[in-house]
Amino acid sequence: MVKLTADLIWNRPHYFFNTVGGERCLDLRGYGIPEIENLGATEFDTIDLSDNEIVKLENFPLLNRLGTLIIKNNWITQINPNIGEFLPKLHTLNLAKNRLVNLVEIDPLASIPKLQRLWLLDNAIIEKPNYRLYVIHKLKSLRLLDFIRVEAKERDEAAALFSSEIQKVPESTEEPETSTLVALTREQILPFNVRYGKASSGVNDGSDPMEVDEPTFSIPVDTMTTNEPEHEEIAVTTGESTDLQGDSSRIDHPPQFDGFDEPTVGHVSSYGLRDVEYARYWYPSDAAFVKVYAKLGLHRYNLLEGTNYQFSHLQSYNKGINAGAAPYFLTLFASDPDSGTVLPYHALVRENQIGLLDVSVNIARPRGFKEKPRLCPPTYTCSPLPRWPSSEMFAQQRFYTLTEHEVQNTDWVRLYLDLAHSTCDRGMTESQLSDFHIERVVIQSLSDAVPPRLDSKSLVVYMVYKDLAKARLREPCFRKAIIRRVYYDSSGSLTFRGKHWSFSEEKEKKKKEKEKKRFALLKRRLGVWGAWRLGLDVYRKRGISSSRTR
After folding, report:
1. Which DSSP state fits 538?
2. Euclidean distance between CA atoms 341 and 336, whole angstroms
3. Pairing relation of β-strands 399-401 and 310-320?
4. Beta partners for 335?
5. Taking burial as the number of CB atoms within 10 A of a residue's CB, which of 20, 306, 343, 360 is the most buried?
């Protein structure tokens, strides 16, 4: 948990200038900030407070410049009734993945005069009857709600349904509760989750196999004054009766968080991670390498289990907060080509170094399953890659050249090439990766006694391929790549390390090595002084004079 201070706000890594839109932006994601404060001296167009632990949307100073406020994935249950007085130019507000329960809780947003875009996804409020019409009726200036444009027909329908201002909010068919309910504060949410650990598992309507509606809790006012609230008075909005006063063995204790999906207790940022819903939200930094990581995790499962599941799409992932090499806890979907069923999978891809291909896949399994315990935890060993073999070495028994049919029908060959480029250049897109045409692939067994096979767990892959983008510009386009795959049975870790380079870079490197050897030979023959004098003579012949030689 980090307090929002002026030093944190004005720290250079969090404050940047968007040259495209000419906006000043402040990024404060994933710090576990409990409340909003110390924003009085700021002049930003966009503030991102996602992935924190904010409970109340309040304590804003007058911010005449703020136009976009992103505060998704927090614990917000209350909104300041006069919030519009402090945010007069706010036009975009993202409140997705919070804890808004009742329709009346969004009424304070009507005080924001220029609010045009609003997101309330993954809140319990969206399950209320006439939710969308109620929000449209309350927020007259709204143009976009939950990625859907507000139509004139919806405004007329909302006006007809809520024609009278005295008319109350539509009530649900459930029986009204006898006690008055209030929103939970941050101090009450965390102890409640720790003690009872989500007593109900939630309800899923079957529309999305990955989404489970989290139950929301409301505690009567008369029980909030005591330290131990009565269990039978806790109301769960899922509609299931929960008797926690009986046998203690019936209480569902929260499982240990393994990094995937969302934790049962606390926020994902408290575990040093940042969550991203890849299927719903798009981030410019997620060009192609994250999806390649997801395919790599499924490749590990197919390689070890002997299956042939096909990658469908990436749902979400949790990433380490650190800016360098980080772990990626991925949730993806894969389809069975025989039956056509689509199943969710979990994969853990850990980056060992940044800026080059050096990753380890430690976990790959169907969602809900556990892998066999390993003899030792995953370890990382960095050994140098082999040199590019000569043509005589390629003819040896431990090398095997893939046929054109094998190259086209072995999906991991293309995956390894995409992995080598996307890890070295994170800005590459899928269209740029598709410009590489594979010409030749040779695999090498890491054991002299075993001939190489496509399903070998440990091998080295040598590729010769063409960059079609440079070929269209009539530039040198042929490149080489080396990717080494090693499986450690004791830890269950599948590691990948590799590099790639162009033929022109290889020629230039050989030329520099040749010049270096030639100068070293001259130093041995003529000495350091003589080699230096020879260098000056060379410069004079080229028309380059030194101040000492004039």
Report:
1. H
2. 6
3. unpaired
4. 310, 342
5. 360
Q: Token match 């006898």: residue? A: 178
Backbone φ and ψ of 412, nearest 5°: -75, -15
Q: What Rg, from alpha-carbon coordinates, does the chain have?
A: 30
| Of 475, 443, 480, 482, residue with least CA distance to 465 | 480
**What pLDDT digit, counting tens, does each position of 90-134 carry?**
999 999 999 998 899 999 999 999 999 999 988 989 988 889 999
Please give the Cα distance from 329 to 274 (Å, whole number).
10
Is residue 134 within 8 Å of residue 110, measured between CB atoms?
Answer: no
507, 508, 513, 516: CA torsion to nearest 10: 150
List CB contacts of 540: < 8 A, sequence separation 6 or more. 549
Q: Which residues pair with 273 in a beta bridge?
A: 320
- For the stretch 257-313, pLDDT in tens is 788 887 777 777 778 888 777 654 444 445 588 999 999 999 999 999 999 999 988
Listed in sequence order, the residues at least 6 apart from 313 whose beta carbon sits closer than 8 Å to its beta carbon are: 279, 332, 333
* Whole-Å CA distances, 241 to 126, 292, 358, 538: 22, 44, 51, 91
Provide the residue type at 22 as one letter: G
Q: Between 177 and 6, where is the model more confident?
A: 6
Rounded CA gap, 31 and 11, in Å?
13
Picking from 244, 246, 248, the residue whose alpha carbon sits closest to that of residue 192 is: 244
Distance of alpha carbon 221 from alpha carbon 241, whole angstroms: 20
Q: What distance in Å separates the CA atoms of residue 213 and residue 151, rounded to the nearest whole number? A: 28
What CA–CA distance (Å, rounded) separates 12 from 31? 15
Record the tokens describing residue 234, joined without a space: 């806790």
| Whole-angstrom distance, CA of residue 320 vs CA of residue 268 | 10
- For the stretch 434-479, pLDDT in tens is 899 999 999 998 876 567 888 888 999 999 999 998 888 888 889 9
Q: How are the residues of the chain apportioned to helix, strand and coil, as percentages rounded to the nearest 5?
A: 30, 25, 50
Position 350 scores a pLDDT of 92
Quote the CA–CA distance of 88 and 66 in Å, as a whole number. 8
From residue 383, how far is each of 359, 380, 473 by CA, in Å? Answer: 13, 10, 37
Amino acid letter, residue 452: P
Provide the residue type at 68 as one letter.
Answer: T
Structure tokens at 318: 């949790």
Kind and range of the H or E element at 382?
none
Give which of 258, 280, 430 is closest to 347, Cα–Cα.
258
Specify whether the backbone of 306 is left (phi greater than 0), alpha (psi in -120 to 50) or beta.
Answer: left
Torsion of CA 444, 448, 450, 455, to 10 degrees: -20
Q: How far apart are CA 323 and CA 355, in angstroms?
A: 12
Spatial contact of 83 and 60, defined as CB atoms under 8 Å apart = yes
377 to each of 118, 353, 398, 490, 547, how far by Cα in Å?
A: 45, 19, 31, 8, 62
